Amino acid sequence: MPRDFKNIKAWQYADELAVAVYSATRQFPREELYGVTSQLRRATVSVPANIAEGSSRDHRKEYLYFLNIARGSTAEVAYLLHLSNRLGYLQDNDYAKLKKLHTETAKTLHGLIKSVKKEIEETTTNL
User: Fold this and answer.
1) Closest to 112 in 3D by CA, of 57, 55, 56, 59
2) Considering the entire predicted model, what is its pTM?
3) Of 47, 51, 77, 89, which one is least surrounded by beta carbons within 10 A?
4) How far apart are CA 61 and CA 43, in angstroms?
5) What is the C-alpha separation between 53 and 66, in angstroms, rounded?
6) Cα–Cα distance for residue pair 21/114, rounded to 1 Å
7) Does the pLDDT of residue 1 top 80, yes or no?
8) pLDDT at 127 over 70
9) pLDDT tens digit string along 66-111?
C-alpha cells in the first residue's frame, strides 16, 4: 500500500535539507555551477526523491531498496558539504547549520530503514 511521502519524517527532514542546500549554494562561485554546486544539489535532492519514489512502491523490499539509495546519497551530501566548507564556499556557521540538518536527516532515515527491515523480517517469519 503506497504511503504519503509527505508524512514521512525522514522525507520532511530531507526536503528541508534540500531547500537549505539550494539556498546556501546560491553563494558558491559561478565557476562551480557545473561542479560542486550541481553535484551537491543533485545528491541532496536524491534523498527526498528516493524516499518519495520508494514510498509509492507496493512491496516493502522495493521501498527498502529506494531508502538505501537515499542513504547512499546522504553520505555523498556529507562529503560535499565537508568539501564545500574546506574550499571556503560554505562559511563555518552555514556549514554547521547544514551539517546539523544533514545529521538529523541521516539519523531519521537510518531509523526508518531499521523499521522497514524489521517489518520485512516479521512478515517473512510469519509466513
Assistant:
1) 55
2) 0.93
3) 89
4) 23
5) 7
6) 26
7) no
8) no
9) 999 999 999 999 999 999 999 999 999 999 999 999 999 999 999 9
| Rounded Cα–Cα distance for residues 50 and 68 (Å) | 9
Domains of the chain, start order: 8-125 (1.20.1440.60)
Dihedrals φ, ψ of 58, to 5°?
-80, -25
pLDDT, position 30: 94
How many residues in the chain?
127
Task: Find out whether 51 and 70 touch, Cβ atoms under 8 Å.
Answer: yes
Q: Residue with C-alpha cell 549554494?
A: 25
Burial class, 81, CB count within 10 angstroms (exposed 0-12 / middle 13-18 / buried 19+): buried
Percent of the chain past pLDDT 90, that is, above it, reads 91
Amino acid at position 51, single letter: I
Cα–Cα dist 32/73, whole Å: 20
The candidate with the shortest Cα–Cα distance to 109, out of 46, 66, 67, is 67
